[in-house]
Amino acid sequence: CVLQPTECFLSQPEEKRDSTVKAKRRKKKKISDVLQKSAPKPGVPADLQNLLNQHFGENRSVIEIEELQLSDSCFLPANDLTHSFSSYLKEICPKWAKLRRNHKEKKSVVMLVLCSSALRSLELIKSMTAFKGDCKVLKLFAKHIKIKEQMNMLEKGVFHIGVGTPGRVKALVEQDALYLISTKYMILDWNWRDQKLRRMMDIPEV
Q1: What CA–CA distances, in Å, run from 97 to 104, 149, 184?
Q2: Domain tally for the chain?
Q3: Which residues form a coiled coil (predicted)?
């Protein structure tokens, strides 16, 4: 009779301890929670330069690293996050109509837009309607499009804007299917985050 309440009394704190451990486990912060709270900031030249240095720093000599330095004059102002995509492109490229008209080269684009996924590429293509007018836009990503198809299109037609992922663009450049000599603008989709809240630059493969 005396033992029963004691046993009950002993078992209660153990249950409580278990539940608090579970609660603590549930409350553990994820990286996505941290990222969610960090406000997006317009990109600056130093952001890209730091990435280049981090990526190439271990394998290159000091002189080679210096050769990779891009002067600030290579960069246009970033979207201050108040512009739509079309209005931003109009601001940085006021002479687009003339550039588009003069572009006659195959296997190349005047403007190259890089983003982290095929779905994001499609979003950006839709949101640049007011800017692009009647120029030809080429989708440069792997989802549902074979690389041979893209190679044929680049060889046969003249395209003004390419929108796609770094992996597919790199593959096309390496196979001499896409030349960058006519490319005047390269736009990086810097702040957009995927479902895991990663930016394009947070993905190791990129």
Answers
A1: 13, 28, 13
A2: 1
A3: none
